[in-house]
Specification:
- An eight-stranded mixed beta sheet has the order 3-2-1-4-5-6-8-7, sandwiched between helices.
- The chain contains five helices and eight strands.
- With 206 residues, it is of the alpha/beta class.
- Helix 1 crosses helix 5, helix 2 packs across helix 3 and helix 3 runs parallel beside helix 4.
- Helices cover 30% and strands 20% of the residues.
- The longest helix is centred in the middle third of the chain and has 16 residues.
Length: 206
């Protein structure tokens, strides 16, 4: 497959690259600072660009089969501002499949079913700013015609790959406290071939 990876220099994004290359896919990473990518591989293409520039996004989308977005909030509104550009470029290019990394805060609350976790007492986080950004992305994807999946990890220590974890559609598995960056990356990558969670959020934890 031709995979476009956004957020490739982040903690999860950088771990997705080896999984995709190992399976022989053509991987295009779209980054602001190419020198941060320390991998060289004949199947890896690095495109420099800005996710807030429509022409950069359109250029990166040509010929892609699937988009993985591991963009994070970084204390800005880049996430919610870039998603309309990404969706429009995908729809114009005829690309249906997008997998994004969200946060467990935008899963449904078990205690307050009509609310999301970050809006309820379930969330232990003081600040809701990052969750609000991810919530905007969730709403944008719901309104699109894309086949989207939002992978929603809870607390994300670097940790190591364990390869065993619990997942639940639209909810965080009960009692889940953490999931490593490596296992999150592995599960996210696997979704390019899976159709179990199309148009769904997926909670992931140990």
């Amino acid at each position: 497959m031709n995979i476009l990876l956004l957020g490739a220099t982040g903690r999860v994004g950088s771990q997705i690259i080896p999984y995709a290359l190992h399976e022989g896919h053509q991987v295009t990473v779209f980054v602001r600072t190419p020198e941060k990518i320390q991998i060289t591989n004949e199947n890896l293409t690095i495109i420099q660009g800005n996710v807030l520039k429509k022409e950069d996004i359109v250029r990166a989308m040509h010929g892609m089969d699937v988009v993985i977005s591991a963009l994070n909030t970084d204390g800005t509104t880049t996430l919610s501002e870039s998603m309309p550009l990404i969706i429009e470029a995908m729809e114009n290019e005829g690309i249906k499949r997008i997998i994004t990394i969200g946060t467990a805060g935008i899963l449904q609350s078990r205690t307050t079913p009509n609310s999301l976790r970050y809006q309820s007492s379930e969330s232990k986080r003081k600040s809701t700013r990052a969750a609000e950004e991810h919530h905007k992305v969730y709403d944008l994807l719901k309104q699109s015609n894309l086949d989207w999946t939002i992978v929603c990890p809870t607390y994300l220590p670097d940790g190591k790959r364990i390869g065993k974890y619990r997942i639940d559609r639209d909810f965080l598995p009960e009692g889940g406290a953490e999931i490593s960056v490596h296992d999150t990356a592995e599960f996210t990558f696997k979704q390019i071939k899976a159709s179990d969670y199309i148009k769904s959020r997926v909670g992931i934890c140990y």
